[in-house]
Design goal:
269 residues; mainly alpha; 12 helices; flat
């Protein structure tokens, strides 16, 4: 008689170690790259390290805190704990580097959005992080990155705040559009009015900043292109597109937005 053993379930370590939402990587790197291009400094490198560490830490911490809350230890709990201990030092090294290479005031943009981080962690533990509001708040939190880099480089607060507002104007309307576009592709209820309204507010807001010399007009033009992309993507003339392809296009639009803002600031356009 041959003994049979039950196969051990395979734990997808990648899903515990890294965010599964591909779009979240754009939310991370667009503000980072913009800040590094507009306000390069040694401190900006440490700010990037801190933000990347915190970004990576969020995923395993979600599983770790969730399992601790329910008083259980699963195979994924062990994996989450391991990655938490790997990622946490990145955040702490980045924070220490900022305090050494820049004034503490460069951390104020993150202090201002710290309540959002707490709320997002609560939503993560409750498995509600993929809802609309948490996604928008996560984008707003990451948009503090270029402001922190600008302050670290010794620039003014109005300039720092405007840079973060431009990133919010880029990311938030895109979140609203993509969610509705995916619903449309899946045959679920969707809205054309909500994405149009959010894009219009973003364009108007950045146009006001440009009028006062706090934003380049090229950024307004790029937001106009994103508005047209949203209108076309939710129209009856759209071509059915897989989610992966939509994600790739959003990365391309993100690169174009960062380029437009950077060229605009350096050229005065």
């Amino acid at each position: 008689m041959t003994a049979t053993t039950k196969a051990k379930p395979t734990i997808p370590a990648r899903s515990i170690a890294l965010p599964i939402e591909h779009g979240s990587w754009g939310f991370l790197f667009e503000p980072l790259v913009l800040g590094m291009v507009i306000a390069p400094s040694i401190a900006a490198v440490f700010i990037s390290l801190m933000v990347i560490g915190a970004f990576l830490l969020r995923q395993p911490l979600k599983f770790l805190l969730g399992d601790m809350r329910q008083g259980r230890t699963l195979p994924r709990t062990v994996i989450a704990r391991r990655f938490t201990f790997w990622y946490a030092p990145l955040t702490l090294i980045g924070l220490a580097g900022i305090l050494v290479t820049a004034t503490p005031s460069s951390l104020l943009p993150f202090v201002a959005v710290a309540p959002l981080a707490i709320y997002l962690m609560v939503q993560d533990v409750a498995r509600q992080s993929r809802e609309l509001v948490p996604e928008i708040l996560a984008a707003i939190f990451l948009s503090a990155t270029p402001a922190s880099m600008v302050i670290a480089a010794g620039s003014t607060w109005p300039f720092a705040i405007s840079l973060s507002l431009i990133m919010i104007a880029r990311l938030v309307p895109s979140i609203v559009y993509i969610r509705n576009r995916l619903n449309l592709e899946k045959g679920k209820p969707y809205s054309t009015a909500a994405p149009a309204a959010v894009h219009a507010v973003a364009i108007a807001g950045v146009a006001i900043l440009a009028q006062y010399g706090l934003a380049p007009w090229l950024s307004v033009a790029m937001l106009g292109i994103l508005f047209l992309r949203s209108a076309a993507g939710l129209s009856r003339f759209r071509r059915p597109t897989p989610a992966k392809v939509l994600g790739i296009w959003e990365v391309i639009y993100g690169v174009l937005m960062v380029t437009a803002v950077s060229v605009g600031y350096y050229s005065g356009l």
